[in-house]
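Cross-check.
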Amino acid sequence: MSAMADQRSGAVVEQLRERIRQLQAAPRSYLATLRTGVEEVDALLPSGGFPLGQAVELCGEAASGRTSLALRAVAAAHREHRLCAWVDGPKELYPPAAAAMGVDLSRLLIIRPKEPSQLAWTAVQLARSGAFACVVLDLNQGLAAGASGGRSSGVRLSLAEGKKLADAAFRGGSLLLLLSSPSAPADGVTRMRTESLGPEGLSVEVVRSRQGGLGTRAELPWSSLYPALGPEGEESVLLAGELPTGKELVPDFYRGRSWEQRNGCGILGQRPGRDAGMPSMGSVLKTGTAPR
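Predicted model, tokenized:
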């Protein structure tokens, strides 16, 4: 019996060795750059796209194309079957629109910290983990009324926070994209400025880079970012295909809130004494039963 067990063990070990040799000989997929697929933008950087292991800042006003460029980079990582994370400061990321640009929602972790002070810390932990090929940190806070004249504002990072983010991207080997506004620029290694040119399109310029390409600028039509747009750019529909409806809008990882299940759903649950009127004493005397 012992001899037969030894033979079986030896056969298993040999099979494992052969399997290891096959895995070592197989071609490995090494990902060093995320290409957006927009040739004009990828050509601005010496690496031919967004390099992994670095922090890149996309700085621009609202509706300047900065978020769309980040979504194109995330979609590129998903085509390589990699995971991505999105730290949503303004809490405005719309999953159906992201999916229409090629983002695989099952491979995207969306985090919405409660406090702006938690944004940088969250991105550092995600990038340093090495589990995500691309981590997007959206530092914008929507439209600031009054003082800023309607321009978008954002969270201003300190110099120490910028260095921590760059170090986390380097150690984790992931691309860290910082979405910022001109009023609150970040401290990315490479800074690219996006600007809307109106109906004609947008411009992307490299304003800071340690790899070269400083001052290079490209102008491109909106249709290069949004394939659903016609060549004239006159269509307002930016989503390719049909919009999901009903339960399809809710991702699989959605967790229902407790108050939605308690006593009905909110004010539609008709809770006596709070959302609906109490029954009259006359109705109680006629039926002889108290309301439950």
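The two ends are 73 Å apart (CA to CA). The CA atoms of residues 75 and 102 lie 5 Å apart. Passed to J.P. for a second look.
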